[in-house]
Amino acid sequence: MTFTFQSEDLKRDSSRKMSQQHLFSLAMEEDVKTADTKKANRVLDHEKENTRSICLLEQKRKVVSSNIDVPPARKSSEELDMDKVTAAMVLTSLSTSPLVRSPPVRPNEGLSGSWKEASCVPSSTSSSGYWSWSAPSDQSNPSTPSPPLSADSFKPFRSPAQPDDGIDESEASNLLFDEPIPRKRKNSMKVMFKCLWKNCGKVLSTAAGIQKHIRTIHLGRVGDSDYSDGEEDFYYTEIKLNTDSVAEGLSSLAPVSPSQSLASPPTFPIPDSSRTETPCAKTETKLMTPLSRSAPTTLYLVHTDHAYQATPPVTIPGSAKFTPNGSSFSISWQSPPVTFTGIPVSPTHHHPVGTGEQRQHGHTILSSPPRGTVSLRKPRGEGKKCRKVYGMENRDMWCTSCRWKKACQRFID
DNA sequence: CTTGCCGGGTA
DNA sequence: TACCCGGCAAG
């Protein structure tokens, strides 16, 4: 809870400073929560790699998820539904391409889980979502967080890059915990309306329905269902489910977008406090085209997933790389980290541990030269000396220095 | 292992 | 100082 607030405040202030602290704390929390899960996942991951069969992978995940006790209790039935839906979408996308799988998962989690549970009462939906995913990124860099928009853009790219990481998968498993039920959302295109009210993930197929839900359930306007001042708009978001797009996305990483759309709204909303009276203001009204919204959201979510992965800045480039490589993507991921280190985390001053270490290393190296204390021994001359020229047999032919085992005077370098 | 030669010891 | 050699580091 505390964290959430901090992040919120900081964000509003538009000061990115917080990112570091926030991230750290989040990361810590995340680790604790998912530690068990991660272990299990890693083991599974291993197996996965061996088999390489997507199907198997999927199954394993499911198993894992079931084993892991994800906190079902805290989610309401409605929430669960949402999760399932999102999970289904994710799975669908994943099934298409193994690489992508990890990223998608996280986003969902972030959305449904984090922000729902969220502690975000009125304050910020986005923050909750934000931290939820950010936390995972231990390695990651804090840099991403800094600029909201820019960060978003980065995120999407990054997520794709992460393909093989066990960590992601583990988290994903958490999200997936319940078997995703694709059937529901399988339709190529479907527009749903999701209630953004804290702790309420209700999704309805009609705007009217969701509005009514909000009015009656959350705004307490029971009787006057007709009365609508438009406030409900702030509390729900339009979700566009597009199976087709998802499938495509898989190949290109796009998959995330669909699920993200859900999540995104919350995130963005925070900033636009102006619009909403309540903290949980609805991001964009349904008026906005789903597409417009989805794009950003997608990115945002993706970002979240990989945020902890750090490499972030690399973004697109990385994703592009790994996409082509299919199996090798894992490698691509790794490279990013390196890059990342090199890349200054940017504006944020926080020095991620990883980065710091690297930097320090560099320093140490530089400093090392001073050590000079080492003997001044001049580099051994390359040319042949008496010893080698004349051989041990003709030692009498050597120069005196050579005879004395001193620096050769005859064949000076 | 071979080379090159520094650091030291001895006469 | 002239000579030698132990031993290290580089190759």
TrEMBL record:
One of its GO terms (molecular function) is RNA polymerase II cis-regulatory region sequence-specific DNA binding. Its main location: nucleus. Residues 1-20, 98-175, 255-278, 347-382 are annotated as: Disordered. Keywords: DNA-binding, Metal-binding, Nucleus, Transcription, Transcription regulation, Zinc, Zinc-finger. It is found in: Nucleus. Coiled coil: none annotated. GO terms for cellular component: nucleus. Residues 123-137 have a biased composition (Low complexity). Residues 193-223 form the C2H2-type domain. SMART domains: c-clamp (SM01366). InterPro entries: CR1/CR2-DNA-binding_regulator, Znf_C2H2_type. GO terms for biological process: regulation of transcription by RNA polymerase II. PROSITE patterns: ZINC_FINGER_C2H2_1, ZINC_FINGER_C2H2_2. This is Zinc finger protein 704. The gene is ZNF704.
